[in-house]
Every structure is written in structure tokens, then in C-alpha cells.
């Protein structure tokens, strides 16, 4: 007769809650880091542009950057296979790489393609170039997320 040993439900529940909490904290920290990376790559204070000036271009770029970081975090969690420590480390590393790539892409589009973020953020109406740059953020996040998986 073969017997299987199972983990008590309370232990499974506790470990699951711990993992969710740890990933949530790391995810929020990466979202904040992503926001400030975009802030550093753009002229002016991004939070002021969004909150006080209600600039739709700043809001679109920031939102797209956060979506991209979220995709990377979700893919890192998915690929962790339940190994919490390794999953958290991978999420941190992949999240930071994704943030760096997004920042580099913003600078590249500014210099190579000729779409200056400084000019876009000076506009008070949503610009087509902002939509394109926002899509680029999301696509970079998706590419990074798929590379993680």
C-alpha cells in the first residue's frame, strides 16, 4: 500500500499568503522604481505634470510604463514555478532590466527617431507620438515578459 503525505491546508494557505505578500511588495517597489525611471528620463516632475497640470501625455507615458513593468512582474511570477526565493530574485532582476530597457528606448526614440519627449510633455493635448511611445513601452514590457517565460 502506498501512502502519500500531504501538507496541511493551513501550511499551504500560509505559504501562499506569504508568497502573495512578498510578490505584491516587490511588484509595488518595481512599479515605483519604474515611475521614477520615467520621471528621470522626462523633463520636469512627472507627478506634478500628471497631478497638477493634468498633462495627458505625461499620464499616458507613465501609465504605459507601469503596465509594462506589471507584465514583466507577472511573467516572472508565472515562471518561478513556486520557488519563492528564486522567483523573487528573478522578478527583481527582470523587473530592473525591463525598466532600464524602457528608459533606454525612450532616450533612443528621442535621439534616433526624433520624437522628443520634452516637446510632447509641453503639449496640453494628447499627441499621436505619445500614443506611439506608450505602445512602445507596453511592447517592450511584453517582449521582456515573454523572454522571462
Automatic annotation (TrEMBL):
InterPro entries assigned: DUF350
Chain ranges passing through the membrane: 12-38, 58-77, 89-109, 129-148
Chief subcellular location: membrane
Membrane topology listed for this record: Multi-pass membrane protein
Keywords: Cell membrane, Membrane, Transmembrane, Transmembrane helix
Statement: the UniProt record of this protein carries the keyword Transport: no
Alphabetized Pfam families for the sequence: DUF350 (PF03994)
Location of this chain's protein in the cell: Cell membrane
Top-rank lineage group of the source organism: Bacteria
Presence of keyword DNA-binding: no
Record-stated family: Belongs to the UPF0719 family.
Name of the protein in question: DUF350 domain-containing protein
Amino acid at each position: 500500500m502506498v501512502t502519500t503525505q500531504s501538507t496541511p491546508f493551513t501550511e499551504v494557505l500560509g505559504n501562499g499568503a506569504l508568497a502573495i505578500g512578498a510578490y505584491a511588495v516587490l511588484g509595488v517597489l518595481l512599479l515605483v522604481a519604474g515611475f521614477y525611471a520615467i520621471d528621470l528620463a522626462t523633463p520636469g516632475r512627472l507627478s506634478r505634470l500628471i497631478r497638477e497640470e493634468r498633462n495627458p501625455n505625461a499620464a499616458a507615458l507613465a501609465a504605459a510604463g507601469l503596465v509594462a513593468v506589471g507584465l514583466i512582474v507577472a511573467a516572472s511570477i508565472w515562471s518561478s514555478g513556486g520557488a519563492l526565493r528564486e522567483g523573487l530574485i528573478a522578478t527583481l532582476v527582470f523587473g530592473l532590466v525591463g525598466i532600464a530597457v524602457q528608459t533606454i528606448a525612450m532616450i533612443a526614440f528621442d535621439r534616433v527617431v526624433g520624437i522628443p519627449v520634452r516637446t510632447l510633455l509641453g503639449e496640453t493635448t494628447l499627441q499621436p507620438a505619445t500614443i506611439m511611445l506608450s505602445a512602445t513601452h507596453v511592447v517592450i514590457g511584453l517582449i521582456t515578459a515573454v523572454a522571462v517565460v
